[in-house]
Amino acid sequence: MPVTHRHSGYVLTDHRIAVPLDHADPGGPAIEVFAREVVAADRAAADLPWLVYLEGGPGCRAPRGLPGWLERACREYRVVLLDQRGTGLSTPATRQTLAGLDDPAGYLRHFRADNIVRDAELLRARLAGDRPWSVLGQSFGGFCALTYLSLAPEGLREVMIAGGLPSLTASPYEVYLAAYPRVLAHNERFFARYPGDQAVADRVVDHLRDHDVRLPGGDRLTPRRFQTLGITFGQQRRFDLLHHLLEDAFTAGGELSDAFLRQVDAVVSFAEHPLYAVLHEAIYCQGEASAWAAQRALGEFPEFDPDRGGPVRFTGEMIYPWLFEEDPALAPLRSCAEGLAAYAGWPSLYDPDRLARNTVPVAAAIYHDDMYVEREHSLRTAGAVGGLTYWITNEYAHDGLGQGAAALDRLIGMVRR
């Protein structure tokens, strides 16, 4: 039975449904999918249209608490916050749960956008019957929305996408060849804002190269792992985080401080979202193996080599094979990740012909300086999807949807026009 509670003027109802692990085998093993329905308390009895929210990631649970855009959404929708399969309360896929499987890589091949969409369709049938619903996709959630339009457009009333228009055809290697220059540009913006931080960052790398520095969990902080802190550059709310970390980096005695190491650990560990690391390159694969695309593309950009002798440059949203050696949360998943990186049988996620003929209204926000999603890829995709209107802006970074109601309000206005 659904469980309901009230909080801050909203009625929240928890739903759980069983779905096939493999939708091609509906009589086979099943997993559970969790979703939280949210409606304004003063409209709880109203016959409102449904809006399902697809979180970014991959491998990230739906928001807990009340995100800033929710108040705007609940003015006219009954909102569904979906924990995508393997995340949150949807039969979690972690080092503990995967350890008992004979073929964890084979299991996780069912955890991409296509099966997330098929789960959503079963959930829609449970909650909304035969009524189509609206979709709001943030980042990877936007990727899922395009897969939704490719596989089951009959289930959709309208689609809104924030920073999540991927290339329909680019290989993982092409995705990362385009990504590294964007990350370098964000490095330049960071050090232009905080020019004094370059010397501190260089000093940290020198110290890590010469000393065995341990994070609070006992694992080593290496120079290349320190460089992954650049993942914060792509979000407006976190762009300055590295500066605040570097302010507290060293003690008076020249050691790295406990406060610095604890805060670094919170950023570089994948303990809270291991699927993000394991599936990150797989979300781009269509008929080919990723073969550790980010690592291969890195060779084209010597600026990121911490041993080259130049100023330190931080990497971004890239997953490297060595992370499955250095991060204790990922180490048990190393063979699983290797299996996924070598797998070449990935089905297509998008149907270009069907997208070109699309009649479902679609509105998309494209962030001009987005570090995570290539702007030119997004623009080409926007031109390839029928019924899509877009808004390109440098007012927001990748987390524009999380800055309040304004971005969603504009998307709603666009999709209704």
Layout of helices and strands:
Elements: E1 3-7, E2 10-20, E3 30-40, E4 50-54, H1 70-73, E5 78-83, H2 95-98, H3 104-108, H4 113-128, E6 133-138, H5 140-151, E7 156-162, H6 172-193, H7 197-210, H8 223-227, H9 241-247, H10 258-268, H11 274-279, H12 293-298, H13 323-326, H14 334-342, H15 352-356, E8 362-367, H16 375-384, E9 388-393, H17 406-416
Helix content: 25-40%
Strand order of the largest sheet: 1-2-3-5-4-6-7-8-9
- By DSSP (H or I, 4+ residues per run), the number of helices equals 17
Which regions are unreliable across 5 or more consecutive residues at pLDDT < 50?
A: none
CATH hierarchy: architecture of the largest domain:
3-Layer(aba) Sandwich
Compute the separation of the termini in Å.
Answer: 39 Å
Structural class: alpha/beta
Mean pLDDT comes to: 96
What is the H/E string?
Answer: EEEEHEHHHEHEHHHHHHHHHHEHEH
- Report the portion of residues in β strands: 15-25%
User: How many whole angstroms does the radius of gyration measure?
Assistant: 22 Å
CATH topology of the largest domain: Rossmann fold
Give the full name of the CATH homologous superfamily of the largest domain: Alpha/Beta hydrolase fold, catalytic domain
User: What is the approximate shape?
Assistant: globular
- Main β-sheet, in a few words? 9 strands, mixed
> Regarding CATH, which class of the largest domain?
Alpha Beta
Number of DSSP strands? 9
- Total number of domains: 2
